[in-house]
Amino acid sequence: MTPAQAAALGLVQGVAEVVPVSSSAQLALLPDLLGWAPPPHRTAFAAALHTGSTVGIAWALRDELRDLPPAAAAGLLASCLPAAAAGLLVDDAVERRLGGPRPTAALLGAAGALLLLADRRPARRGVGRTEAVLAAAAQVLALAPGVSRYGAVLTALRARGVDREAAARHALLMSLPVTAGASLLPLARADRGVLRELAPLLAAGVPAAALSGATAVTVRRRRPGRSATAAAVYRLGLAAAVLARRPAH
Q1: Greatest CA span in the chain, whole angstroms?
Q2: What is the pTM (predicted TM-score) of this model?
Q3: Beta-bridge mates of residue 216
Q4: At CA 60, angle to CA 59 and CA 64, rounded to 5?
Q5: Phi, psi at residue 125, to the nearest 5°?
Q6: Which end of the chain is less packed: N or C, by CB atoms within 10 Å?
Q7: Distances from the Cα of 148 to the Cα of 108, 172, 190, angstroms
């Protein structure tokens, strides 16, 4: 992989943290689909790009994060605990079983279909206690590659009839702590030699992810209640392309 390709993946990954298309799936599937050499040490590379996008998104949301009431901030962090605990316990096993291109693509498409159906629900309510519990459970399911933390929470909330703007805001804020933890832990565990080897790619990809994540938040604010149909259709299309390229044996 070249630094230019790493920068391109960083741009895609940052946007994919704000649009429900699964940023992890983009990093796993696009190089394979485009015929690019995969990045060395894929886990550390993906974790670094996720760290960059998280910083960019947090910067774009800094006023909103600062203005969260203490009770709301505590509730948001508490709702992330199930996914954080599950990630520590089973993330490696899930990645080994489902991290290949075909399982990731299948999950990407299935989750996209569910999002498409959920987004058709009429808005009837905001985010209450039941919705917050369902959102926490949805983040646990998002440990499966291709599902997307943001997309899973958005799907759960829209299925409950939460209006699009409130669902998107809650999903984005809720995904930040878990994404930060899930990206910083592999980097802390990574061998220093691995990070030095990745340095040219990360120097291109991480700033690109931060910039595109921040820009995507800014663009989304202009249309806060936008439909998720385009994202769901993209997921289905990418999944179909990967599965067609890699037929089952």
Answers
A1: 54
A2: 0.85
A3: none
A4: 95
A5: -155, 170
A6: C
A7: 8, 11, 23
